[in-house]
């Protein structure tokens, strides 16, 4: 341990210090920088769909035309008047909305990791900011249904590309920035839903509310360019095929890991220069499967509950209307995600498959709860939904922490970008599974 501290002091002494900064200040600036990036990246994704529904409802009411998306939005407000089903079903599963929101993200996460390394990070951030701002503007000023849908797609593109880019960006910083990123993405769910609902409750129109939220993409811009203190090796505006994370940065990270874990030792890093070949990338993907598959299962079960079952967990004897019950389910879920995504500093879990198992148990239990309606109180469901969010958030942050920690430096940037496909694939499959589930229960 003493020898490790001596080596760490020696390396830190050899590295040039950035003027006007110290290690602790830089560390916290980067932590909060990634926290804001996580918040801003997921913010449009969280609020855009509900905002689009409000505006679509207004547009369609003018045209006296009702689409499936409008029926969903109106249905969640309509209480018991929708149909004679004992579940008070809306005409269309919320899985339809989920698929429209997740498919662009999934496509980007599957395809982009193989080519995105050629695009410097500065240009990626500018593109994500432009897409997020365009989504708010398009939905705000849309004059037709198709334009609002394009706005939702832009928000999905911004979120998907931003997530894989910022996760791969983290390899150029101290690994603790993943704590900030995870906490920020969790905060986006709570902040986005509460802020949108609060502004609407204050009698602002959806258009005005979305225009106010234009500040969020510009906050991402400020966080990336003015708050973060990156390594000089970060490919900001140019990038060559031979670039890889610098040896000195990797050595410092290895020593910090030794200091953190005391008895653990880091394996020697492969610092061979040159671009990562397709064969190597496929080998990396194979090695990621023990992480990506459990993450995908967690999110499959999680969003199957949210989009296939949550609307059906309706208590007729509650003082809350159906819309209010659904809104509280979503809020408690987001609170659970925020808390657990902020937990990485307190406790780390290597065996993430445990959370996928527990989440699948959750889903099966709630299927039977919907089918036989044996739960006596909505408060039990509140507790289960909060627990569901906790499981999903802790699986997310621990998955990316251990991928970053256990992947060789040469492949780490690609691995972080590629593994982000796990949660999106699980969400997309959950949306598809929600259709027949919704149809079956509503036919009873």
Automatic annotation (TrEMBL):
Gene3D superfamilies: MFS general substrate transporter like domains. Keywords: Lysosome, Membrane, Transmembrane, Transmembrane helix, Transport. GO terms for biological process: lysosome organization; regulation of intracellular pH. One of its GO terms (cellular component) is lysosomal membrane. It is found in: Endomembrane system; Lysosome membrane. It is a multi-pass membrane protein. Residues 7-20 have a biased composition (Polar residues). The chain crosses the membrane at residues 32-52, 125-158, 178-198, 210-229, 353-372, 378-402, 414-435. The keyword Transferase does not apply. InterPro entries: Battenin_disease_Cln3 (IPR003492), Battenin_disease_Cln3_subgr (IPR018460), MFS_trans_sf (IPR036259). Residues 1-20 are annotated as: Disordered. Belongs to the battenin family. This is Battenin. It comes from Poecilia mexicana. The lineage of its organism: Eukaryota, Metazoa, Chordata, Craniata, Vertebrata.
